[in-house]
Amino acid sequence: MTTTEESATAAATGASATERFRADKTAVADTPPERVSMLAREVLAAIHATIRANQVSYAEYDALKAWLIQVGADGEWPLFLDVFLENVVEEVASADREGSKGTIEGPFYAPGAPELPAEATLPMRPDEPGTPLVFHGQVRSADGTPLAGARVDIWHCDALGYYAQFAPGLPEWNLRGVITADDQGRFRIHTIQPAPYQIPTDGATGALIRAADWHAWRPAHLHLKVSADGHQLVTTQLYFPGDPHNEDDIASAVKPELMLDPKPSGDGVDVEYDFVLAPS
Ligand code: DHB
Ligand code: FE
What we know:
It is built from six helices and 13 strands. It is an alpha/beta fold.
């Protein structure tokens, strides 16, 4: 099959993700020097210990330098960090939060997706390939109160594993939207089932994965940011049972609470999932 999406490269995807990060996230400049010093010292000490324990050679040191330079040149830092570090940052950040489980945001969120009513079809191409998926549920507060007007910001890749705005050839807001729930906090989203996703393999992250004989797969997933007035936003992902990569997600972002229970329905699948938000 030939599609424009096949021309998605690590460099193009990485450059888009880097640009997106710079536009949306402001680096915190007020970390006290003592904290910077402690964190930097501990990270460096861990690397020093690895070098000593494994008798790292100059050739290996130069391979590391070359690789680090290439990650930057490919714009792949957002991808690399979100695959290999974000899951632990998320674990620490959400440890004390009640309500629905969260997981990593990943590098492909784009704010400002089209605003849609409580029942809506995500923007998609007229011939969008993939199994039709109806995703519905209710957003409630921790005490069970339905959250009228809650917002469900959803984004996911297409049936070939490509994200709009990060792979060429896709409409800007393909498979992205912000749904406002009804007065009972209910939403019903018509979309297609996303494919398992392989992180770009032709760049520096792919080179590491190949050199280490790992695999590059994430299981199929829906990304969500669920929010409501007076409540803490949850950034999460939902997964499909039976995906072989649920057990060995390269990004370590799967949690048992995030598994969907899809039911066959017509020519597609129907999934129900409710969200519980902690008061802020
Ligand atoms: C990456 C891609 C994803 O779709 C995701 O959810 C997490 C990480 C990545 O390529 O880094
Ligand atoms: Fe993703």
